[in-house]
Amino acid sequence: MSEEEKIIAAEEKKKQKAIDKEIQTTKRTGKDAPKTHGEILRDQITDAQETYEKSPSSILASSMTAGLEIGFSFLMICSVFYFLEGKMEESSIFKMIALVYPLGFILVVMGQSILFTEQTALLTLPVLNNKRTIGSMLRLWGLVICGNLIGGYMIALLLNWLGPRLGIFNSEVVITIADHVLKAAPHVIFVSAIVAGWLMGLLSWLLASARDTISRIVMIFLITSVMAFTGLHHSIIGSVEVFSGMIKSADITFLDYVSFQSLALLGNAFGGAIFVGLLKYRAFVFNIIGK
């Protein structure tokens, strides 16, 4: 290592120590006072570190649970669409769905299951803080995604069998919803997924700032209902919707599903990690370095 490289490494080490010290020594505010940026960041990094330290089997089980629970949003989407079909225009029904779409997300977040999009920014923070490697983050992402998707497939199969038998929705409704998700061009789905990932990452940050259960539920409802009302693409609930359409319609192929899922996952990851994890963390770092 050259002398110049040693100087640069020493400077980086000094900056890292300053950042760690600021995070660790951030004073806790009063019970009713809003949390500071440093408090939220510290809590987020601590939560993320706890996730990294869990066993793979625990993470897989928790992420599968999240995939199952997110299916309750799909149940309500299909049921509301079937109930309102013929009573109002289809475009209006899709707007009304925003009122029930948050249910699965509320169950997942309040039940502390591991959902990929809600955890994306959170799991990025220890990497940015040099406590974890990119490789460990990608391995954890992969495990969470697998669990979420498997849970989603299971609940999709169950609900597609149960719905028609209870008379709460039929195959035509499932296909209509899947077509609605897939109607956008690939590049639009990707950008839409970036914005959805951004919102989910912000949700994680906002939840860390909340101090009571009602506030947390309201935040989850507001963020996810915005996603539903605007038609933004979420990789996990979207997987349940498109997978269900695929098993019900020959016009929706496996290639359609894989294409959608790839774009949605990449977009959600990019939105959560870059726009929230990186920008929120860098804003804190610039504030420390500038002192």
UniProtKB/TrEMBL annotation:
Keywords for this protein: Membrane, Transmembrane, Transmembrane helix
Transmembrane segments: 59-84, 96-117, 138-162, 188-208, 217-237, 257-279
Signal peptide start-end: none
UniProt superkingdom: Bacteria
Pfam families noted in UniProt: Form_Nir_trans
Membrane association type: Multi-pass membrane protein
Protein name per its UniProtKB record: Formate/nitrite transporter family protein
Main localization of the protein described in the UniProt heading: membrane
Subcellular location: Membrane
Key word Transmembrane helix present: yes
Native organism: Algoriphagus pacificus
